[in-house]
Design a protein that fits this description.
alpha/beta, TATA-Binding Protein, 3 domains, five-stranded mixed β-sheet, 17 helices
Protein backbone atom coordinates (compact mmCIF):
# COMPACT_ATOMS: atom_id res chain seq x y z
CA UNK A 1 0.00 0.00 0.00
CA UNK A 2 1.42 3.41 -0.93
CA UNK A 3 1.35 6.40 1.42
CA UNK A 4 -1.74 8.00 -0.18
CA UNK A 5 -3.84 4.84 0.16
CA UNK A 6 -2.65 4.36 3.73
CA UNK A 7 -3.50 7.99 4.53
CA UNK A 8 -6.98 7.68 3.02
CA UNK A 9 -7.59 4.44 4.90
CA UNK A 10 -6.92 6.23 8.18
CA UNK A 11 -9.29 9.06 7.22
CA UNK A 12 -12.04 6.54 6.44
CA UNK A 13 -11.46 4.25 9.42
CA UNK A 14 -14.42 4.41 11.86
CA UNK A 15 -12.08 3.42 14.71
CA UNK A 16 -10.27 6.79 14.55
CA UNK A 17 -11.99 9.75 16.19
CA UNK A 18 -12.85 12.93 14.32
CA UNK A 19 -10.46 15.19 16.21
CA UNK A 20 -7.53 12.98 15.21
CA UNK A 21 -8.73 12.90 11.58
CA UNK A 22 -8.74 16.69 11.59
CA UNK A 23 -5.04 16.60 12.51
CA UNK A 24 -4.50 14.33 9.51
CA UNK A 25 -6.33 16.71 7.17
CA UNK A 26 -4.03 19.54 8.25
CA UNK A 27 -0.91 17.73 7.02
CA UNK A 28 0.67 18.98 3.80
CA UNK A 29 1.68 16.60 0.99
CA UNK A 30 5.28 16.19 2.19
CA UNK A 31 4.15 15.56 5.77
CA UNK A 32 1.62 12.99 4.54
CA UNK A 33 4.28 11.08 2.64
CA UNK A 34 6.66 11.01 5.62
CA UNK A 35 3.89 10.11 8.09
CA UNK A 36 2.40 7.33 5.97
CA UNK A 37 5.12 5.89 3.70
CA UNK A 38 5.32 2.86 6.02
CA UNK A 39 4.13 1.43 9.30
CA UNK A 40 6.58 1.81 12.16
CA UNK A 41 8.70 -1.35 12.15
CA UNK A 42 10.09 -3.42 15.01
CA UNK A 43 13.85 -2.82 15.11
CA UNK A 44 16.48 -3.70 17.72
CA UNK A 45 14.58 -1.45 20.13
CA UNK A 46 10.96 -2.29 19.22
CA UNK A 47 8.79 0.50 17.83
CA UNK A 48 10.35 3.94 17.90
CA UNK A 49 9.60 7.14 16.04
CA UNK A 50 8.57 10.78 16.13
CA UNK A 51 5.30 11.46 17.92
CA UNK A 52 2.42 12.73 15.80
CA UNK A 53 -0.40 11.58 13.51
CA UNK A 54 0.30 8.85 10.96
CA UNK A 55 1.22 5.18 10.58
CA UNK A 56 4.93 6.06 10.69
CA UNK A 57 4.49 8.02 13.91
CA UNK A 58 4.01 7.19 17.57
CA UNK A 59 0.47 8.04 18.67
CA UNK A 60 -2.32 6.47 20.71
CA UNK A 61 -3.72 4.59 17.70
CA UNK A 62 -0.39 3.06 16.73
CA UNK A 63 0.16 2.12 20.40
CA UNK A 64 -3.35 0.64 20.74
CA UNK A 65 -3.09 -1.33 17.50
CA UNK A 66 0.35 -2.68 18.42
CA UNK A 67 -0.98 -3.69 21.83
CA UNK A 68 -4.00 -5.43 20.31
CA UNK A 69 -1.59 -7.45 18.16
CA UNK A 70 0.52 -8.28 21.21
CA UNK A 71 -2.62 -9.21 23.17
CA UNK A 72 -3.70 -11.57 20.38
CA UNK A 73 -0.21 -13.10 20.45
CA UNK A 74 -0.34 -13.63 24.23
CA UNK A 75 -3.82 -15.10 24.19
CA UNK A 76 -2.85 -17.44 21.36
CA UNK A 77 0.22 -18.82 23.14
CA UNK A 78 -0.83 -18.78 26.80
CA UNK A 79 -3.91 -19.51 28.86
CA UNK A 80 -4.73 -16.72 31.33
CA UNK A 81 -1.69 -14.58 30.43
CA UNK A 82 -0.44 -11.59 32.41
CA UNK A 83 1.73 -8.66 31.36
CA UNK A 84 3.61 -5.74 32.94
CA UNK A 85 3.81 -2.16 31.64
CA UNK A 86 6.38 0.53 32.50
CA UNK A 87 6.84 4.06 31.20
CA UNK A 88 9.56 6.71 31.34
CA UNK A 89 9.54 10.51 31.75
CA UNK A 90 8.92 11.41 28.10
CA UNK A 91 5.95 13.44 26.88
CA UNK A 92 3.01 11.11 26.35
CA UNK A 93 4.64 8.07 27.97
CA UNK A 94 2.16 7.73 30.82
CA UNK A 95 -0.85 8.25 28.55
CA UNK A 96 0.50 5.69 26.05
CA UNK A 97 1.11 3.24 28.91
CA UNK A 98 -2.48 3.48 30.09
CA UNK A 99 -3.78 3.19 26.52
CA UNK A 100 -1.80 -0.05 26.22
CA UNK A 101 -3.05 -1.21 29.63
CA UNK A 102 -6.70 -0.65 28.67
CA UNK A 103 -6.21 -2.74 25.53
CA UNK A 104 -4.59 -5.61 27.46
CA UNK A 105 -7.37 -5.51 30.07
CA UNK A 106 -9.95 -5.42 27.29
CA UNK A 107 -8.50 -8.67 25.98
CA UNK A 108 -8.76 -10.43 29.32
CA UNK A 109 -5.06 -10.15 30.17
CA UNK A 110 -4.11 -9.56 33.79
CA UNK A 111 -2.24 -6.26 33.64
CA UNK A 112 0.31 -4.74 36.03
CA UNK A 113 1.43 -1.12 35.64
CA UNK A 114 4.13 0.61 37.70
CA UNK A 115 2.53 3.31 39.84
CA UNK A 116 5.21 5.81 38.83
CA UNK A 117 7.96 6.28 36.26
CA UNK A 118 10.06 3.11 36.03
CA UNK A 119 13.17 1.98 34.17
CA UNK A 120 13.47 -0.56 31.38
CA UNK A 121 15.51 -3.01 33.53
CA UNK A 122 12.88 -2.75 36.29
CA UNK A 123 10.33 -3.88 33.70
CA UNK A 124 12.55 -6.80 32.64
CA UNK A 125 12.96 -7.79 36.28
CA UNK A 126 9.22 -7.47 36.94
CA UNK A 127 8.28 -9.75 34.05
CA UNK A 128 10.50 -12.45 35.52
CA UNK A 129 9.64 -11.86 39.18
CA UNK A 130 5.89 -11.89 38.54
CA UNK A 131 6.19 -14.80 36.09
CA UNK A 132 4.29 -12.71 33.56
CA UNK A 133 4.01 -13.79 29.95
CA UNK A 134 4.99 -10.43 28.49
CA UNK A 135 5.92 -6.82 29.10
CA UNK A 136 5.77 -3.39 27.49
CA UNK A 137 7.94 -0.32 28.08
CA UNK A 138 6.95 3.07 26.71
CA UNK A 139 10.25 4.82 26.02
CA UNK A 140 12.49 6.10 23.25
CA UNK A 141 15.64 5.61 25.32
CA UNK A 142 18.18 8.34 24.44
CA UNK A 143 16.41 9.86 21.41
CA UNK A 144 15.51 13.59 21.32
CA UNK A 145 12.27 14.84 22.89
CA UNK A 146 10.20 14.51 19.69
CA UNK A 147 10.49 10.71 19.87
CA UNK A 148 8.74 8.02 21.83
CA UNK A 149 8.60 4.26 21.50
CA UNK A 150 7.26 0.90 22.52
CA UNK A 151 9.39 -2.08 23.57
CA UNK A 152 7.77 -5.51 23.83
CA UNK A 153 9.11 -8.22 26.14
CA UNK A 154 9.17 -12.02 26.13
CA UNK A 155 8.21 -13.97 29.27
CA UNK A 156 11.91 -14.49 30.06
CA UNK A 157 12.38 -10.72 30.33
CA UNK A 158 14.15 -9.90 27.07
CA UNK A 159 12.72 -8.09 24.07
CA UNK A 160 10.94 -10.14 21.43
CA UNK A 161 13.21 -11.93 19.00
CA UNK A 162 12.70 -11.54 15.23
CA UNK A 163 10.53 -14.66 14.79
CA UNK A 164 8.23 -13.63 17.65
CA UNK A 165 8.19 -10.02 16.53
CA UNK A 166 7.18 -11.09 13.01
CA UNK A 167 4.21 -12.98 14.41
CA UNK A 168 3.14 -9.92 16.42
CA UNK A 169 3.55 -7.72 13.35
CA UNK A 170 1.41 -10.06 11.26
CA UNK A 171 -1.30 -9.90 13.91
CA UNK A 172 -1.05 -6.09 14.06
CA UNK A 173 -1.38 -5.79 10.29
CA UNK A 174 -4.59 -7.83 10.36
CA UNK A 175 -6.27 -5.45 12.83
CA UNK A 176 -8.58 -2.56 11.95
CA UNK A 177 -8.78 0.21 14.52
CA UNK A 178 -12.47 -0.51 15.13
CA UNK A 179 -11.53 -4.04 16.22
CA UNK A 180 -9.35 -2.88 19.11
CA UNK A 181 -10.79 -3.97 22.47
CA UNK A 182 -10.43 -1.64 25.43
CA UNK A 183 -11.19 -2.33 29.07
CA UNK A 184 -11.45 -0.17 32.18
CA UNK A 185 -8.52 1.31 34.09
CA UNK A 186 -10.11 0.05 37.33
CA UNK A 187 -9.02 -3.47 36.39
CA UNK A 188 -5.32 -2.53 36.29
CA UNK A 189 -3.07 -3.71 39.16
CA UNK A 190 -0.28 -1.40 40.28
CA UNK A 191 3.30 -2.09 41.34
CA UNK A 192 4.55 0.24 44.07
CA UNK A 193 7.17 0.77 46.73
CA UNK A 194 7.43 -2.81 47.97
CA UNK A 195 8.20 -4.02 44.47
CA UNK A 196 10.86 -1.36 43.94
CA UNK A 197 12.47 -2.38 47.25
CA UNK A 198 12.57 -5.98 46.06
CA UNK A 199 14.45 -4.86 42.95
CA UNK A 200 16.93 -2.75 44.97
CA UNK A 201 17.72 -5.66 47.27
CA UNK A 202 18.26 -7.94 44.28
CA UNK A 203 21.01 -5.60 43.07
CA UNK A 204 22.60 -4.85 46.43
CA UNK A 205 23.12 -8.55 47.18
CA UNK A 206 26.00 -8.36 44.69
CA UNK A 207 27.93 -6.20 47.16
CA UNK A 208 30.26 -8.14 49.45
CA UNK A 209 31.80 -5.15 51.24
CA UNK A 210 29.37 -3.05 53.29
CA UNK A 211 31.97 -0.70 54.78
CA UNK A 212 31.59 3.01 54.06
CA UNK A 213 32.97 3.90 50.66
CA UNK A 214 35.18 6.94 50.12
CA UNK A 215 34.59 7.20 46.37
CA UNK A 216 32.97 10.50 45.40
CA UNK A 217 30.44 10.42 42.55
CA UNK A 218 28.36 12.95 40.67
CA UNK A 219 25.24 11.47 39.13
CA UNK A 220 22.73 12.70 36.55
CA UNK A 221 19.74 10.75 35.21
CA UNK A 222 19.42 13.34 32.41
CA UNK A 223 15.87 14.11 33.61
CA UNK A 224 14.94 10.45 33.19
CA UNK A 225 13.80 7.42 35.14
CA UNK A 226 17.15 6.68 36.77
CA UNK A 227 16.65 9.46 39.34
CA UNK A 228 15.08 7.05 41.84
CA UNK A 229 16.86 3.66 41.55
CA UNK A 230 20.49 4.66 40.93
CA UNK A 231 21.03 6.85 44.04
CA UNK A 232 19.02 4.40 46.16
CA UNK A 233 21.10 1.39 45.16
CA UNK A 234 24.34 3.32 45.75
CA UNK A 235 23.13 4.43 49.19
CA UNK A 236 22.23 0.87 50.19
CA UNK A 237 25.72 -0.24 49.12
CA UNK A 238 27.10 2.51 51.44
CA UNK A 239 28.37 4.90 48.80
CA UNK A 240 27.58 7.99 50.82
CA UNK A 241 29.39 10.60 48.72
CA UNK A 242 26.94 10.74 45.84
CA UNK A 243 26.12 14.23 44.56
CA UNK A 244 23.13 14.49 42.19
CA UNK A 245 22.84 17.17 39.52
CA UNK A 246 19.64 18.58 40.98
CA UNK A 247 18.37 20.35 37.83
CA UNK A 248 18.51 17.01 36.00
CA UNK A 249 16.97 14.90 38.78
CA UNK A 250 13.43 16.05 38.02
CA UNK A 251 11.37 14.61 35.14
CA UNK A 252 11.54 16.93 32.13
CA UNK A 253 9.87 15.61 28.95
CA UNK A 254 11.42 18.48 26.99
CA UNK A 255 14.96 17.62 28.16
CA UNK A 256 15.55 21.36 28.42
CA UNK A 257 19.07 21.11 29.86
CA UNK A 258 20.22 18.35 27.51
CA UNK A 259 18.36 18.16 24.16
CA UNK A 260 19.96 14.86 23.16
CA UNK A 261 19.98 12.79 26.39
CA UNK A 262 22.52 10.22 25.25
CA UNK A 263 25.21 9.25 27.81
CA UNK A 264 27.53 8.37 24.91
CA UNK A 265 27.80 12.11 24.18
CA UNK A 266 30.22 13.88 26.54
CA UNK A 267 28.22 17.09 26.04
CA UNK A 268 25.53 15.75 28.42
CA UNK A 269 28.05 15.99 31.26
CA UNK A 270 28.28 19.81 31.15
CA UNK A 271 26.43 20.36 34.43
CA UNK A 272 27.95 17.26 36.02
CA UNK A 273 31.45 18.58 35.25
CA UNK A 274 30.76 21.82 37.08
CA UNK A 275 29.49 19.98 40.15
CA UNK A 276 32.29 17.45 39.90
CA UNK A 277 34.91 20.19 40.09
CA UNK A 278 33.15 21.69 43.12
CA UNK A 279 33.04 18.45 45.12
CA UNK A 280 36.20 16.80 43.79
CA UNK A 281 34.34 13.85 42.31
CA UNK A 282 36.21 10.73 41.22
CA UNK A 283 33.50 9.78 38.72
CA UNK A 284 30.81 11.57 36.74
CA UNK A 285 27.97 9.19 35.83
CA UNK A 286 25.01 9.71 33.50
CA UNK A 287 22.17 7.34 32.59
CA UNK A 288 19.78 7.67 29.66
CA UNK A 289 16.05 8.42 30.16
CA UNK A 290 14.98 4.78 30.61
CA UNK A 291 18.12 3.99 32.64
CA UNK A 292 19.37 0.98 30.74
CA UNK A 293 22.64 2.59 29.56
CA UNK A 294 25.34 4.44 31.47
CA UNK A 295 28.15 6.81 30.54
CA UNK A 296 31.17 7.52 32.77
CA UNK A 297 33.87 10.17 32.99
CA UNK A 298 36.74 9.39 35.39
CA UNK A 299 38.99 11.93 37.05
CA UNK A 300 42.63 11.36 36.08
CA UNK A 301 45.52 13.72 36.64
CA UNK A 302 43.14 16.60 37.35
CA UNK A 303 40.92 16.11 34.28
CA UNK A 304 37.74 14.18 33.52
CA UNK A 305 38.36 11.54 30.86
CA UNK A 306 35.54 9.75 29.02
CA UNK A 307 35.44 5.95 29.04
CA UNK A 308 33.59 4.52 26.06
CA UNK A 309 31.35 1.45 26.04
CA UNK A 310 34.02 -0.91 24.73
CA UNK A 311 36.55 0.28 27.28
CA UNK A 312 34.09 -0.07 30.17
CA UNK A 313 33.14 -3.56 29.00
CA UNK A 314 36.82 -4.54 29.04
CA UNK A 315 37.37 -2.95 32.47
CA UNK A 316 34.38 -4.79 33.96
CA UNK A 317 35.47 -8.09 32.42
CA UNK A 318 38.98 -7.84 33.88
CA UNK A 319 37.63 -6.73 37.29
CA UNK A 320 35.07 -9.54 37.50
CA UNK A 321 37.37 -12.26 36.15
CA UNK A 322 40.02 -11.42 38.76
CA UNK A 323 37.49 -12.62 41.34
CA UNK A 324 38.22 -16.22 40.32
CA UNK A 325 34.77 -17.25 39.07
CA UNK A 326 34.36 -20.88 37.99
CA UNK A 327 33.48 -21.52 34.35
CA UNK A 328 32.80 -17.86 33.50
CA UNK A 329 30.94 -16.81 30.36
CA UNK A 330 30.86 -13.37 28.80
CA UNK A 331 28.38 -12.38 26.12
CA UNK A 332 28.92 -9.45 23.80
CA UNK A 333 28.12 -8.49 20.21
CA UNK A 334 29.78 -8.80 16.83
CA UNK A 335 30.42 -5.03 16.77
CA UNK A 336 32.02 -4.79 20.23
CA UNK A 337 35.74 -4.69 21.06
CA UNK A 338 37.96 -7.67 20.30
CA UNK A 339 39.98 -6.86 23.43
CA UNK A 340 37.41 -8.92 25.29
CA UNK A 341 38.68 -12.05 23.51
CA UNK A 342 42.24 -11.45 24.72
CA UNK A 343 41.08 -10.85 28.30
CA UNK A 344 38.90 -13.95 28.31
CA UNK A 345 41.69 -16.12 26.92
CA UNK A 346 43.99 -15.15 29.79
CA UNK A 347 41.42 -16.19 32.40
CA UNK A 348 40.01 -19.20 30.61
CA UNK A 349 36.60 -17.59 30.12
CA UNK A 350 34.27 -18.29 27.24
CA UNK A 351 33.07 -15.43 25.02
CA UNK A 352 29.88 -15.69 23.00
CA UNK A 353 29.00 -13.10 20.36
CA UNK A 354 25.53 -12.17 19.18
CA UNK A 355 23.97 -9.72 16.80
CA UNK A 356 23.38 -6.17 17.98
CA UNK A 357 20.47 -5.89 20.39
CA UNK A 358 20.58 -6.90 24.04
CA UNK A 359 17.64 -9.26 23.46
CA UNK A 360 20.09 -11.73 21.96
CA UNK A 361 22.28 -11.51 25.06
CA UNK A 362 19.18 -12.00 27.24
CA UNK A 363 18.15 -15.03 25.23
CA UNK A 364 21.59 -16.58 25.61
CA UNK A 365 21.60 -16.03 29.38
CA UNK A 366 18.28 -17.85 29.63
CA UNK A 367 19.83 -20.79 27.81
CA UNK A 368 22.70 -21.20 30.29
CA UNK A 369 23.22 -24.36 32.28
CA UNK A 370 23.81 -22.58 35.58
CA UNK A 371 25.00 -25.79 37.23
CA UNK A 372 28.03 -25.80 34.92
CA UNK A 373 28.56 -22.16 33.91
CA UNK A 374 28.59 -18.75 35.55
CA UNK A 375 27.17 -15.77 33.72
CA UNK A 376 29.69 -13.03 34.37
CA UNK A 377 28.98 -10.12 32.05
CA UNK A 378 26.86 -9.10 29.10
CA UNK A 379 27.72 -5.87 27.32
CA UNK A 380 27.32 -3.88 24.13
CA UNK A 381 29.60 -1.17 22.82
CA UNK A 382 26.62 1.20 23.07
CA UNK A 383 27.10 1.59 26.86
CA UNK A 384 24.81 -1.24 27.99
CA UNK A 385 25.93 -3.72 30.69
CA UNK A 386 24.50 -6.50 32.86
CA UNK A 387 26.39 -8.46 35.54
CA UNK A 388 23.55 -10.35 37.21
CA UNK A 389 20.73 -12.69 36.20
CA UNK A 390 17.88 -10.71 37.83
CA UNK A 391 16.99 -9.21 34.43
CA UNK A 392 17.47 -10.02 30.77
CA UNK A 393 18.12 -6.49 29.57
CA UNK A 394 20.95 -4.08 30.19
CA UNK A 395 20.64 -2.36 33.56
CA UNK A 396 22.20 1.01 34.36
CA UNK A 397 21.59 0.72 38.13
CA UNK A 398 23.35 -2.66 38.17
CA UNK A 399 26.17 -1.27 36.00
CA UNK A 400 26.63 1.90 38.07
CA UNK A 401 26.91 -0.18 41.24
CA UNK A 402 29.55 -2.48 39.75
CA UNK A 403 31.48 0.41 38.19
CA UNK A 404 31.48 2.19 41.56
CA UNK A 405 32.67 -0.97 43.33
CA UNK A 406 35.46 -1.36 40.77
CA UNK A 407 36.50 2.31 41.02
CA UNK A 408 36.49 2.12 44.84
CA UNK A 409 38.80 -0.89 44.80
CA UNK A 410 41.21 0.84 42.44
CA UNK A 411 40.99 4.05 44.50
CA UNK A 412 42.17 2.10 47.55
CA UNK A 413 45.14 0.93 45.46
CA UNK A 414 45.91 4.54 44.49
CA UNK A 415 44.76 4.06 40.91
CA UNK A 416 42.04 5.54 38.71
CA UNK A 417 39.92 3.78 36.11
CA UNK A 418 42.13 5.40 33.47
CA UNK A 419 45.19 3.84 35.11
CA UNK A 420 43.41 0.49 35.01
CA UNK A 421 42.55 1.01 31.35
CA UNK A 422 46.18 1.76 30.49
CA UNK A 423 47.17 -1.48 32.23
CA UNK A 424 44.73 -3.33 29.98
CA UNK A 425 46.33 -1.78 26.89
CA UNK A 426 49.84 -2.66 28.08
CA UNK A 427 48.73 -6.24 28.78
CA UNK A 428 46.46 -7.00 25.83
CA UNK A 429 47.31 -4.45 23.15
CA UNK A 430 46.17 -1.02 22.06
CA UNK A 431 42.64 -1.38 20.75
CA UNK A 432 40.83 1.69 19.48
CA UNK A 433 37.13 1.70 18.54
CA UNK A 434 34.93 4.46 17.20
CA UNK A 435 31.51 4.87 15.63
CA UNK A 436 30.51 6.82 12.53
CA UNK A 437 26.86 7.84 12.15
CA UNK A 438 25.23 8.99 8.89
CA UNK A 439 21.63 10.25 9.15
CA UNK A 440 19.05 9.53 6.41
CA UNK A 441 15.60 10.97 7.11
CA UNK A 442 12.33 9.96 5.45
CA UNK A 443 11.49 7.41 2.77
CA UNK A 444 14.11 8.71 0.33
CA UNK A 445 16.73 8.57 3.06
CA UNK A 446 16.00 4.92 3.82
CA UNK A 447 16.37 4.08 0.15
CA UNK A 448 19.71 5.84 -0.02
CA UNK A 449 20.89 3.98 3.08
CA UNK A 450 20.08 0.65 1.42
CA UNK A 451 22.03 1.71 -1.68
CA UNK A 452 25.12 2.48 0.40
CA UNK A 453 24.91 -0.88 2.19
CA UNK A 454 24.71 -2.57 -1.23
CA UNK A 455 27.80 -0.64 -2.29
CA UNK A 456 29.67 -1.96 0.76
CA UNK A 457 28.46 -5.45 -0.08
CA UNK A 458 30.20 -5.22 -3.45
CA UNK A 459 33.41 -3.73 -2.05
CA UNK A 460 36.50 -5.87 -2.65
CA UNK A 461 38.87 -3.83 -0.52
CA UNK A 462 39.23 -0.44 1.15
CA UNK A 463 42.74 0.91 1.60
CA UNK A 464 43.91 2.66 4.77
CA UNK A 465 47.41 3.04 6.19
CA UNK A 466 49.22 -0.05 4.85
CA UNK A 467 46.13 -2.26 4.85
CA UNK A 468 44.00 -3.15 1.83
CA UNK A 469 42.71 -6.70 1.50
CA UNK A 470 40.06 -7.96 3.91
CA UNK A 471 37.68 -10.82 4.45
CA UNK A 472 34.00 -9.96 4.69
CA UNK A 473 31.14 -11.54 6.61
CA UNK A 474 27.65 -10.79 5.32
CA UNK A 475 25.31 -11.58 8.20
CA UNK A 476 22.27 -11.29 5.94
CA UNK A 477 23.45 -13.74 3.27
CA UNK A 478 26.20 -15.89 4.82
CA UNK A 479 25.55 -18.85 7.11
CA UNK A 480 26.97 -17.51 10.40
CA UNK A 481 24.92 -19.49 12.89
CA UNK A 482 23.19 -16.26 13.91
CA UNK A 483 19.81 -14.90 12.76
CA UNK A 484 20.08 -13.20 9.37
CA UNK A 485 20.42 -9.45 9.68
CA UNK A 486 21.62 -6.60 7.49
CA UNK A 487 25.20 -6.34 8.81
CA UNK A 488 28.46 -6.48 6.86
CA UNK A 489 31.71 -6.91 8.81
CA UNK A 490 35.08 -6.56 7.08
CA UNK A 491 38.26 -7.81 8.79
CA UNK A 492 41.84 -6.81 7.89
CA UNK A 493 44.90 -9.07 8.33
CA UNK A 494 46.28 -6.93 11.18
CA UNK A 495 43.14 -7.40 13.30
CA UNK A 496 41.50 -4.12 12.33
CA UNK A 497 37.88 -4.27 11.17
CA UNK A 498 34.79 -2.26 10.39
CA UNK A 499 31.11 -3.19 10.35
CA UNK A 500 28.18 -1.52 8.59
CA UNK A 501 24.53 -1.76 9.65
CA UNK A 502 21.38 0.38 9.72
CA UNK A 503 20.32 1.52 13.18
CA UNK A 504 17.34 -0.34 14.58
CA UNK A 505 16.10 2.71 16.48
CA UNK A 506 17.01 5.79 14.41
CA UNK A 507 17.23 6.75 10.70
CA UNK A 508 20.99 6.26 10.72
CA UNK A 509 23.64 4.20 8.99
CA UNK A 510 26.15 3.05 11.61
CA UNK A 511 29.75 2.15 10.80
CA UNK A 512 31.78 0.61 13.61
CA UNK A 513 35.52 1.14 13.27
CA UNK A 514 38.15 -0.86 15.20
CA UNK A 515 41.92 -0.97 14.91
CA UNK A 516 44.78 -2.43 16.91
CA UNK A 517 48.15 -0.71 17.21
CA UNK A 518 51.53 -1.04 18.90
CA UNK A 519 50.88 2.08 20.96
CA UNK A 520 48.08 4.49 21.75
CA UNK A 521 49.43 6.90 19.14
CA UNK A 522 49.70 4.32 16.37
CA UNK A 523 46.20 2.98 17.10
CA UNK A 524 44.78 6.51 17.00
CA UNK A 525 46.55 7.26 13.73
CA UNK A 526 45.28 4.04 12.12
CA UNK A 527 41.76 4.72 13.35
CA UNK A 528 41.70 8.19 11.78
CA UNK A 529 42.98 6.75 8.50
CA UNK A 530 40.28 4.05 8.38
CA UNK A 531 37.57 6.52 9.37
CA UNK A 532 38.67 8.83 6.59
CA UNK A 533 38.55 6.04 4.02
CA UNK A 534 35.06 5.03 5.16
CA UNK A 535 33.71 8.59 5.12
CA UNK A 536 35.06 9.02 1.62
CA UNK A 537 33.38 5.83 0.44
CA UNK A 538 29.99 6.85 1.89
CA UNK A 539 30.22 10.34 0.39
CA UNK A 540 31.14 8.88 -2.99
CA UNK A 541 28.02 6.67 -2.93
CA UNK A 542 25.51 9.22 -1.62
Amino acid sequence: MDHIKRYEAWLEDPGIDEAFKEELRNLDSEEIEDAFFRDLAFGTGGLRGVMGPGSNRVNRYVIARATQGFADYLNHHYSLPSAVIAYDTRAGSKDFAFEAARVLVGNGIRTFVFDRVATTPELSYAVRALEAQGGIVITASHNPKAYNGYKVYHHEGYQLLPLEAREVIERIEAIAFKEIKRGETGDIEFLGESFFNQYYEELVQLVKDYTLKELTLVYTPLNGAGARPVPEVLKRARFMKVFPVMTQMVPDPDFTSVPYPNPEDVAVFAQARVLGEEVGADLLIATDPDADRVGVLARHQGEYVAINGNEMGALLAEYLLKGGVLHPRIITTIVSTHMIDAIAQRYGARVDKTLTGFKYIGEMISGFDFSRETFLLGFEESYGYLTHTHARDKDAANAVLMIAMMAEEYRREGRTLIDALETLHETYGYFSESLLNFTFEGSRGLGKMDEIIEAFRGLQGLEFADQYAFGAIDYERDDTGLPREKVIKCLYPDGSWFAVRPSGTEPKLKIYVAVRGDSSESAHKKSLALQGALKGFVEKNQ
